[in-house]
Every structure is written in structure tokens, then in C-alpha cells.
Amino acid sequence: MDRYRDTEMDELFSKLFELASLTQRALSDAIWALSHHDKALAKKVKDGDDAIDELALKIDAESFQMIARYQPVATDLRSLEACIRIALDLERISDLAVSIAKTTIGLDARIKPLLGLTPMGEKVTEMLDTVMRSLLERDSSLAESVFPMDDEVDSLEDKVFSELFEIVTGTRGIIQGADRLLMVARFLERAGDHVTNMSEQICYMLTGRRVKSSDYRRPLTEMPDAG
Questions:
Q1: Is 75 domain-assigned?
Q2: Helices of type H across 106-145
Q3: In CATH, what number is assigned to the domain containing residue 154?
Q4: Least packed by Cβ within 10 Å: which of 90, 100, 109, 199?
């Protein structure tokens, strides 16, 4: 029985890593599409969301089925809880990538994306890669390293706000477009928050200890300039 359970658990985590890969690709493509005005790629991100949603639902269903079938405790129960919560966070990150793609599709080609958005998106993608490596390597310290990275995302968001106010020309269409780009910064900030949620869950899965990302964040006065 343990052999079958372990095999199912391995298959479940394999699906979770597939979901993470699809989500990371969607986020990277959404940022690339925005920075290059690539509406075809943005549409691809939007159209690919259904497959991500379906995989997330499958992970959720299989996790609950395993809980009902095996009534796991300790590490196994924490692992299944992590699958459920991480899949949900990945699905929400994918939704944010779709929101960015929709912004690109509706954006006037005359409007240049804010320069700070690309490094902000790259940092969130790096966070996502790090947190999934921590799960693959079962390394809680690597998961904890994600928490201060979210400070950098917040600093980059502040730079986007500053850049926005500097480039607004006063033309109504440009202002409306800039507002849309400001929403992209907020989407990325939320995506970073979802990654920190995943890190907290992985730390709990691996150690049985609840951690809060806020305990690892640097005081605002100590945060370095992101640029």
C-alpha cells in the first residue's frame, strides 16, 4: 500500500512541477509580449489559461482523493496540503499573467511600456524559479531566500510609479494607457505575494514549522535602491 501511495505522490508532484513550468512560461511570455507590443504572443498567453486551470483543478482533486483514501498524517499530510495551496497560488499567478496579456492586447501601440516593468517581471519569475527549486531539492533555506526578494519587487513597483508620473504627457489617451501599465505593476506585485505564500507553505511542508515572510523582510530604511 505504501508503494502505491508513494507512486501517486510522485505523480502528483510531477503534475505540480508541470503546472509551475506552464505558469512561469505564461508570466515570462506576458512580460515579453508587453515590452515588445507582441499581441499575438499575448493572445497565446490568454488562450493557454484554460489548460493551466484544468491542471490546477486536477491536482486539487487528486490531492483530496489521496487524503480521503490514505488519511495521511505528519509529512504526508503536509505534502498534500502544500500541493493544494501551491496549485492555487500558481493558478492565480497564471490569471495575473492573463491580465497582463489582456493589457497588451488593448494597449495603443504608441504607448511605450514603463521601463521598470520588465525587471519587475523578471524578478517575480526568478522568485518562482527559486521556490520551485526549493521544493525539488527539499531545501527550506532556499524557500526562505525568496522572502527578501519580494522587497526588491516592491522597490521596483515604487520606481514604476515614479516613472509613470514623469512620462505622462497630458494627452488623455496616453494617460489612460499609463493607467493600464500601472495596473500591470500591481499584477506583478500580487504575483510576488503568491510566490511568498508558496515559500511559506514549502517551509511548513519540509520542517513542520510555520513561518511568516514578514519575519524575513528588511526594514524599509534598509532596503537598497532597486536600480
A1: yes
A2: 117-137, 140-144
A3: 1.20.58.220
A4: 109
pLDDT in tens, 175-209: 556 778 889 999 999 999 999 999 999 999 999 99
Number of domains in the chain: 1
What is the extent of the structural domain holding 57?
2-222
Residue matched to cell numbers 535602491: 225
Q: How far apart are CA 61 and CA 221, in angstroms?
A: 44
* 201 in any annotated domain: yes
Q: Would you say 178 and 167 are in contact if contact means Cβ atoms under 8 Å apart?
A: yes
What one-letter code names the amino acid at 50?
A: D
In angstroms, rounded to a whole number, what is the distance separating the alpha carbons of residues 193 and 60? 21
Span 112-123, average pLDDT: 86
Q: Is there a domain that residue 111 lies in?
A: yes
Query: How many whole angstroms separate alpha carbon 46 and alpha carbon 105?
Result: 10
Closest alpha carbon to 226 in 166, 144, 163: 163
140-184: pLDDT as tens digits:
999 999 999 999 999 998 888 887 776 665 554 455 567 788 899
